[in-house]
Amino acid sequence: MTANTPSGSSKNIDVALIGGGIMSTTLGSLIKQLQPEWSINLYENLAQAGLESSDPWNNAGTGHAALCELNYTPAAADGSVATAKAVGINEQFHVSRQFWSHMVSQGHIGSPKGFINPLPHMSFVWGNDHADYLKRRYEALRAEPLFQEIEFSEDHAELEKWVPLVMQGRDPQQRVAGSRVAGGTDVDFGALTRELAGFMDAQGAELHYGHKVLDVSRATDGRWDVKVKNNSTGEVSTVSARFVFVGAGGGALHLLQRSGIPEAKGFGGFPVSGQFLRSTDDAVIAQHNAKVYGQASVGAPPMSVPHLDTRFVNGKRSLLFGPYGGFSPNFLKSGSFLDLPLSVRMHNLIPMLAVGKDNLGLVKYLITEVLKSRPKKVAALRDFYPEANGDSWELITAGQRVQVIKKDPKKGGVLQFGTEVITSADGSISGLLGASPGASTAAPIMIQVLQRCFPGEFKGWEPKLKEMIPGYGAKLNENPSLLADITADTNRILELG
């Protein structure tokens, strides 16, 4: 592997990928199959790929498919439940699954058991209003082919079979409701990222770990000068790239701002941190087999939706509860306290001030979360797991998420809970801002980047994309027979049966 080679080992390259997370490695893996002769350099500040936002301990959700996340199915004033966003995210997740299946079937990456495991996805609520909503959500979703396997129950005995920890010790008179999709998955995106990086390395891409990108600037010939520091030696050098992708998570905003492209003007970022309680009791861990999502607190960002979550990290089963929201001005877990103030520019000052004024509920929520004592954190856990022993849960710090702030002609600025692809007019530089659903939709988002940035080549790439992703260009929700075929194939290849 080419980790820690001199930053300037290739002075002129086709593609520079900034950041070694799931987005950059997905894009690099696509390009190496669509245009294998192109030279690619990847630069990652940390010691290996997938250690920041893609790491499973830093990722608020590991397998977003809109099966259980209630914020993707909002209720209207008349009580109806909108399903369009959930359907769209699930469609995207199926594209990612097909891409991963292709990589496994071709021997490009290792055993799927190293990064994906079958795991039911479940929503769980209590109280009349929430239970009524969940039932309406179930009825709306089961009409969609993508969600045809969804189940619903308010029966305590049935729910105890699904999630015994959640139901044991619960008041038998409490009205509860749960919906479940048994065919969900858990994804270790850190492990997957490193598999994709390994494929890129085998195909001749240069992977520079321990290398921090300091600046991205336009050269007189229209190419991009990427200034890089080798963290081990202190050496600073520059490479010239025809195309740059900024997939640096929370670090992307600063670099896009430094690039000077007008498309990045008006964008800001609001960092949100988090913590989880992680079980240290193997007997308890073994009793829970699901991702169980509840309703978010008033004012909480979507990434802070509480969940009792089974995860498989480096092949080992674990159990987490959280996240508990927090605030740090860092844009990355490994970042600086100056990240937020240094991101303020004249062009994004008004949007950021407008967002601060219009999101006092979020500010109050974060202050409350920061001040929450450990006993109160354990009390929140017991809402989901009534018999939880707080002494057998350890508090861990999760990763940073930077929510997108963007201009709005009416409000001045809005806080956007999602992802935003920013691309220059000529397609020579692109970057990704935002958070959820993020990693789960990496493949379709990176295909979108390719389409935007390489319109001349893209049509010629489509046959290969169709080979990699059999459902490419189709809406599976509108084609149940194709959905059934693709699901069966990906389940077989990814060993999810």
Automatic annotation (TrEMBL):
Catalysis performed (reactions): (S)-malate + a quinone = a quinol + oxaloacetate
Pfam families in the record: Mqo
An example molecular function term from Gene Ontology annotations: (S)-2-hydroxyglutarate dehydrogenase activity
Membrane-spanning intervals of the chain: none
A GO BP entry: tricarboxylic acid cycle
Broad enzyme group: oxidoreductase
Keywords: FAD, Flavoprotein, Oxidoreductase, Tricarboxylic acid cycle
EC number: 1.1.5.4
Cofactor list: FAD
Associated pathway: Carbohydrate metabolism; tricarboxylic acid cycle; oxaloacetate from (S)-malate (quinone route): step 1/1
SUPFAM superfamilies in UniProt: FAD/NAD(P)-binding domain
Family statement drawn from the similarity comment of this UniProt entry: Belongs to the MQO family.
Record protein name field: Probable malate:quinone oxidoreductase
Species: Crystallibacter crystallopoietes
